[in-house]
Amino acid sequence: MLSIMPGGNDYGEPKRRGNESQKILNESWPLSDKAGGHARGIEDQPNPIAVEVLIEWATDGEEWLAGSATRWTASHVFVRISDTRSLTRFVWVRARDVRRTQLPPG
Questions:
Q1: pLDDT tens, 20-78?
Q2: What DSSP string describes the chain?
Q3: Can you give the residue range of the structural domain that contains 54?
Q4: In-domain check, residue 1
Q5: Confidence check: pLDDT of 18 > 60
Q6: What is the gyration radius of the CA atoms in the chain, in angstroms?
Q7: How many domains does the chain have?
Q8: Positive or negative, the Cα torsion across 76, 73, 33, 68?
Q9: From its phi and psi, is residue 12 left (phi > 0), alpha (psi between -120 and 50) or beta?
Protein backbone atom coordinates (compact mmCIF):
# COMPACT_ATOMS: atom_id res chain seq x y z
CA MET A 1 0.00 0.00 0.00
CA LEU A 2 1.32 3.41 -0.95
CA SER A 3 0.80 6.44 1.23
CA ILE A 4 1.76 10.08 0.90
CA MET A 5 3.93 11.46 3.69
CA PRO A 6 3.54 15.05 4.84
CA GLY A 7 6.23 17.45 3.78
CA GLY A 8 7.49 16.98 0.30
CA ASN A 9 10.70 17.87 -1.44
CA ASP A 10 12.43 20.63 -3.36
CA TYR A 11 10.75 19.45 -6.59
CA GLY A 12 7.15 20.00 -5.46
CA GLU A 13 6.40 16.32 -4.98
CA PRO A 14 5.17 14.67 -1.79
CA LYS A 15 7.36 12.10 -0.09
CA ARG A 16 6.07 8.61 -0.76
CA ARG A 17 6.25 5.54 1.39
CA GLY A 18 5.07 2.04 0.65
CA ASN A 19 5.89 -1.53 1.49
CA GLU A 20 7.50 -1.94 -1.92
CA SER A 21 9.88 1.02 -1.63
CA GLN A 22 13.59 0.38 -2.06
CA LYS A 23 16.72 2.47 -1.76
CA ILE A 24 18.40 3.43 -5.05
CA LEU A 25 22.03 2.49 -4.51
CA ASN A 26 23.49 4.42 -7.46
CA GLU A 27 21.84 7.73 -6.57
CA SER A 28 24.51 10.43 -6.81
CA TRP A 29 24.00 14.13 -6.11
CA PRO A 30 25.91 16.62 -8.29
CA LEU A 31 26.89 18.96 -5.44
CA SER A 32 27.66 18.61 -1.75
CA ASP A 33 28.30 20.72 1.31
CA LYS A 34 28.40 20.20 5.08
CA ALA A 35 24.73 19.17 5.04
CA GLY A 36 25.30 16.49 2.37
CA GLY A 37 24.39 16.02 -1.29
CA HIS A 38 22.19 18.53 -3.08
CA ALA A 39 21.36 20.14 -6.43
CA ARG A 40 20.54 23.70 -5.34
CA GLY A 41 20.90 26.19 -8.18
CA ILE A 42 20.69 23.66 -11.02
CA GLU A 43 17.69 24.80 -13.05
CA ASP A 44 15.23 22.81 -15.16
CA GLN A 45 16.06 22.77 -18.87
CA PRO A 46 13.31 24.09 -21.19
CA ASN A 47 13.12 20.85 -23.23
CA PRO A 48 13.17 17.55 -21.31
CA ILE A 49 14.97 14.66 -23.00
CA ALA A 50 13.55 11.13 -23.21
CA VAL A 51 16.07 8.77 -21.61
CA GLU A 52 16.61 5.41 -20.01
CA VAL A 53 18.27 5.41 -16.60
CA LEU A 54 20.10 2.56 -14.94
CA ILE A 55 18.70 2.10 -11.44
CA GLU A 56 20.43 -0.14 -8.93
CA TRP A 57 17.70 -1.19 -6.49
CA ALA A 58 18.71 -2.35 -3.01
CA THR A 59 16.69 -5.57 -3.38
CA ASP A 60 15.88 -6.04 -7.06
CA GLY A 61 19.32 -5.25 -8.52
CA GLU A 62 20.04 -3.31 -11.72
CA GLU A 63 17.30 -2.29 -14.14
CA TRP A 64 16.93 0.21 -17.01
CA LEU A 65 13.82 2.41 -16.65
CA ALA A 66 12.25 4.95 -18.98
CA GLY A 67 12.45 8.50 -17.77
CA SER A 68 12.75 12.15 -18.63
CA ALA A 69 15.96 14.15 -18.05
CA THR A 70 15.13 17.70 -16.99
CA ARG A 71 18.32 18.88 -15.26
CA TRP A 72 21.97 18.02 -15.78
CA THR A 73 25.57 18.98 -15.27
CA ALA A 74 28.68 17.65 -17.02
CA SER A 75 28.76 14.71 -14.62
CA HIS A 76 25.18 14.17 -13.33
CA VAL A 77 21.62 13.92 -14.65
CA PHE A 78 18.27 14.46 -12.91
CA VAL A 79 15.76 11.91 -14.23
CA ARG A 80 12.04 11.79 -13.50
CA ILE A 81 10.90 8.18 -13.21
CA SER A 82 7.64 6.43 -12.46
CA ASP A 83 8.18 3.39 -10.29
CA THR A 84 6.44 2.60 -7.00
CA ARG A 85 9.70 1.26 -5.54
CA SER A 86 11.14 4.78 -5.43
CA LEU A 87 10.30 7.03 -2.47
CA THR A 88 10.33 9.96 -4.92
CA ARG A 89 9.53 10.27 -8.62
CA PHE A 90 13.06 11.38 -9.51
CA VAL A 91 16.71 10.47 -9.04
CA TRP A 92 20.07 12.14 -9.59
CA VAL A 93 22.62 9.72 -11.07
CA ARG A 94 26.00 9.93 -12.77
CA ALA A 95 25.77 10.72 -16.49
CA ARG A 96 27.21 7.28 -17.34
CA ASP A 97 23.96 5.72 -16.00
CA VAL A 98 21.75 7.57 -18.52
CA ARG A 99 21.22 7.08 -22.24
CA ARG A 100 19.00 8.94 -24.70
CA THR A 101 16.07 7.04 -26.16
CA GLN A 102 15.10 9.72 -28.65
CA LEU A 103 17.54 11.37 -31.01
CA PRO A 104 17.42 15.15 -31.31
CA PRO A 105 15.77 16.50 -34.48
CA GLY A 106 17.94 17.03 -37.53
A1: 899 999 999 999 999 999 999 999 999 999 999 999 999 999 999 999 999 999 999 99
A2: -EEEESS--TTS--EEEETT---BTT---SEEETTEEE-TT-PPPSS-EEEEEEEEETTTEEEEEEEEEEEE-SSEEEEE---TTSSSSEEEEEGGGEEESSPPP-
A3: 22-100
A4: no
A5: no
A6: 14
A7: 1
A8: negative
A9: left
